[in-house]
Design brief:
Length: 87
């Protein structure tokens, strides 16, 4: 799957769980680290957990993708999932 399609899929999966302020930033011309950032907000720890689980579980089950790395915690109110060219 190309990075643009993956970013759009991540946006769709976040939207499935009613994430707020979903934004995709195309940073291909600015960064050698990644192509896209998908940024979404949750309203509470359980809401954030639902968003993170939806993205991670569906990408694993439907696409065979696992995050290359992750950082943050639900308690800290932020989580980063890195899928190589999409963060």
């Amino acid at each position: 799957m190309d990075s643009r399609k993956l970013a759009l899929l991540c946006r769709e999966l976040a939207d499935n769980k009613k994430a707020e302020n979903i934004t995709i930033l195309d940073v291909r011309e600015l960064s050698s680290v990644t192509d896209y950032f998908v940024i979404a907000s949750g309203t509470s720890e359980p809401h954030l957990r639902a968003i993170v689980d939806e993205i991670a579980d569906r990408l694993r089950e439907d696409c065979g993708l696992r995050p290359n790395a992750s950082d943050g915690t639900l308690r800290a109110a932020w989580v980063v999932l890195e899928y190589f060219d999409v963060i």
